[in-house]
Amino acid sequence: MREIESALVAVLDLDQIADILARDIDAQAIQTLLGGYDFAKLRPEKLCEIVLEESIIPEGVPVYLTEAEIKLQGEIWVIHRNDADPFPSSPHAHNYQQRLKMHLGNGDLYTHKQKQPCRRLRKSVFLEFRERVMQRTSSIVLPPLSI
Q1: pTM beyond cutoff 0.85
Q2: Cα–Cα distance for residue pair 74/82, rounded to 1 Å
Q3: Which of 57, 129, 136, 128 shows the shortest CA–CA distance to 97?
Q4: Of 47, 145, 141, which Cα lies nearest the Cα of 90?
Q5: What is the distance in angstroms between the CA of the first residue and the CA of the last residue of the chain?
Q6: Residue 120 CB partners (closer than 8 Å, separation 6+)
Q7: Residue ranges of the domains in the chain?
Q8: DSSP per residue, 63-95
Q9: pLDDT in tens, the chain (147 residues)
């Protein structure tokens, strides 16, 4: 059921499933909307996880905290194969704790649901990050550098 909800949110470009209540959609319409939907997108395969001892997020980037008392020594960035959303690059990295995405071709950082970058990583930090990704797994084909 949750996969159907997630697919409807994606297909109808909704912010959340509750937004569907404002639409007149019955079971037949749902079947039509999702007939060709690739549900594999909702189960991306994790390619690698990079754990950093120190933060690479530049000062001033708006970050998301679910609880102010959570303290993390490092950061965890995750890269998926078959990510449902190829934005900002394919592949790209997620920092779920801070709700950020990183373009793996240029180091731009994006906050949740934003299409404009909020900051860019320093070139040296970004290149080191890409190197760690490549050391971690050889199955990732990173986007070409554009910095």
Answers
A1: no
A2: 26
A3: 57
A4: 141
A5: 42
A6: 58, 106, 107, 108, 109, 126
A7: 2-40, 44-136
A8: ---S-TT---SSEEEEEEES-S---SSSSEEEE
A9: 788 888 888 888 877 777 788 788 888 888 898 898 888 877 778 888 888 888 888 888 876 543 322 223 478 888 887 677 889 998 898 888 888 999 999 999 999 878 999 999 999 999 988 888 888 777 778 899 998
